[in-house]
Amino acid sequence: MKKPAPLLVYTVLRLLAFLVPLAVMWFFFPIFREFWWLAAIFAALIGASISMIFLRTPLSDASARIHERREGRPVAGQADADVEDAAVDGSDHP
């Protein structure tokens, strides 16, 4: 079976790190039903903390995958720069 994309795994885990605390606060603490915006702020803080502590490996995998994909692509302006460098190197002007 093919391993899922690291960016997809990291995204799903980050969403869960936000949505699970939000659901817990929403269903088990009635005050957060009235102040939904406060529950969202607390869930965001909890989710950020969880992701910094527990999701380092998925973040590293996703970052490495993005870096590999970026390194494999040719740079758009590189061909123009090579032509210009060749023209400057071939000229007799100092």
Q: Keyphrases for this structure?
A:
mainly alpha; single chain; 94 residues
Description:
With 94 residues, the protein is mostly helical. It has one domain. The chain is 81% helix and 0% strand. It is built from 5 helices and no strands. Helix 1 crosses helix 3 and helix 1 packs antiparallel against helix 4. The N and C termini lie far apart (61 Å). The mean pLDDT is 87.
How many angstroms does the end-to-end distance come to? 61 Å
State Rg.
Answer: 24 Å
Averaged pLDDT, please? Answer: 87
Give the ordered list of helices and strands. HHHHH
Count of spatially separate domains: 1
Q: Profile the largest sheet.
A: none
- How big a fraction of the residues is strand? under 5%
Which segments are poorly predicted (pLDDT under 50) over 5 or more consecutive residues?
none
Structural class: mainly alpha
Helix count? 5
General form: elongated
- How many beta-strand runs? 0
